[in-house]
Amino acid sequence: MPETTHHEAWADRAWGALLERTGQTAAEVGPRFPLYADPESGAWKSTSRGSWTGGFWAGLLWLRALASDAPQDRAAAAECIRRLAHWTDQDTATRGLIFWYGTALAAGPGRDGEAAGLREKAARSCLAAYDPERELVPWGAAFGGPRMLARVDAVPGLVPLLAGLAGEGQRAAHGHLTRHLTLSRTEHPPRPAWRAGPENGWTPCAEPAPGWSRTTPWLLLGLADGLHFLTDGLDSRAARGLWEAAGRLTAPRLAPASPLVPPAQEGQPSGPVDTSAAAIEAVALLKLAALARATDRGTEAERLTARARQILHRLCTGHLSARGALTDGCYDAARALAPCHELIWGDFFLAVGLAVLTGRTDPFTT
User: Fold this and answer.
1) Among 16, 276, 281, 361, whose CB has the most other CB atoms within 10 angstroms?
2) What's the gap between Cα 354 and its chain centre?
3) What pLDDT is attached to residue 187?
4) DSSP state, residue 332
5) What pLDDT is stored for residue 252 in this prediction?
6) What is the pLDDT of residues 211-265, one digit of tens each?
7) What is the signed CA dihedral for 181, 242, 136, 93, rounded to 10 degrees?
8) Could you tell me which residues come within 8 angstroms of residue 130 by beta carbon, excluding any fewer than 6 positions away?
9) Is 276's pLDDT higher than 90?
10) Which has more confidence, 260 or 7?
11) What pLDDT shows up at residue 137?
12) Is 59 part of any domain?
């Protein structure tokens, strides 16, 4: 178990509410996968196949199962993972999101061997898709559009998924991470998506637009996992490079004026906010804080933990509904799709953040 930081009443209340909401959601969607819910009625928009978000629903079910230790909750979580098996061979880098977050809590000793098997199958399939010249697993064609894209939402999940395969997998994970980090440095704010151009060049994509709320949180999450799962296989220079990237990305977030809940699109303060981006950031910062603490960066760990705690407190006291739903998440501001809704990954990352903050789970279990 990790060191307990702030086991406070607000966090415990929010944790309980989120688990209760998970039970309500499970009863409503049945064998389908929740995507986003109306902020007023709480009714879910769901999908039969899981889309790129299916792993977050499976992860929430596993959080509930590990909290309750009830056989029926474990069975529900295990069944959810099995319903995602068809994604293992789909051409999409979001297999990292699906099979890391969907299996991380299930694949521990004595838990769900089938989940561990699906994770390994997905990891090997992603490794086979790795392009050594471009140094990444391409975004893929499963959701339409050009295949050879570098997108920041292809970083989290995929880095630890690949890193679980020794040798080639570790090298691919490092290449994939550093490719996206390198591209992120070429513009400010970082551009979320790039298309492969001629002679190994990259062309900026218009969507998602620069300033997208989840750009830096996704990068930070993948970077934290890279520092944890890859450091043993990196030389000191490569490890130092990852820590320097972490410093560049976190410095603006630790500034006093940085909003705890960002606008869905930077530069549009009157538009919707995105609580899901804040929840992702909080989890990433808690992971980085644990790493900083373990490497004698105590002051840095305190600052990162304080920021994460402030974010989680704001989410729980300002955006968590009475039914336990994290509202004010923005699915897609450009298309006005679910702009102020409950998002399944927002609920998931808020639950993970609270579990880590209160010592219920280790930062790198999820």
Assistant:
1) 276
2) 14
3) 92
4) B
5) 94
6) 999 999 999 999 999 999 997 777 888 889 999 999 999 999 999 999 999 999 9
7) -80
8) 136, 137, 162, 172, 175, 176
9) yes
10) 260
11) 98
12) yes
Domain count, the chain: 1
**Residue 260 CA, distance from chain mean position:** 17
Please state, in angstroms and rounded to a whole number, the distance separating the CA atoms of residues 39 and 49: 23
pLDDT digits (tens, 9 = 90+) for 305-326: 999 999 999 999 999 999 999 9
Tell me whether residue 299 is in a domain.
yes
CATH code for the domain of 212 = 1.50.10.10
Give the side-chain half-sphere CA count within 13 A for 330: 22
Q: Which pLDDT score, from 0 to 100, does residue 3 have? A: 40
Tell me the two tokens of residue 264: 């869905």
For residue 159, give the nearest of 239, 228, 81 by alpha carbon.
228
Distance CA 80, CA 78 (A): 5
Alpha helix ranges (H) inside the chain: 9-29, 54-68, 71-82, 95-101, 113-129, 158-163, 168-184, 215-230, 236-250, 275-294, 298-318, 344-357
Angle at the Cα of 114 from the Cα atoms of 346 and 94, rounded to 5 degrees? 40
Q: Which two tokens stand for residue 129?
A: 């898709």
Q: Say how far apart CA 219 and CA 155 lie, in whole Å.
A: 7
Q: How far is CA 209 from the centre of its chain?
A: 19
Domain encompassing residue 331: 9-357
Confidence (pLDDT) at 339: 97
Lowest-pLDDT range, 11-20, 175-184, 226-235, 317-326? 226-235
- Residue 234 located in a structural domain: yes
Q: Specify whether the CB–CB gap between 16 and 68 falls below 8 A.
A: no
Opening angle at CA 264, ends 284 and 315, nearest 5 = 55
Is the model's pTM score more than 0.90?
Answer: yes
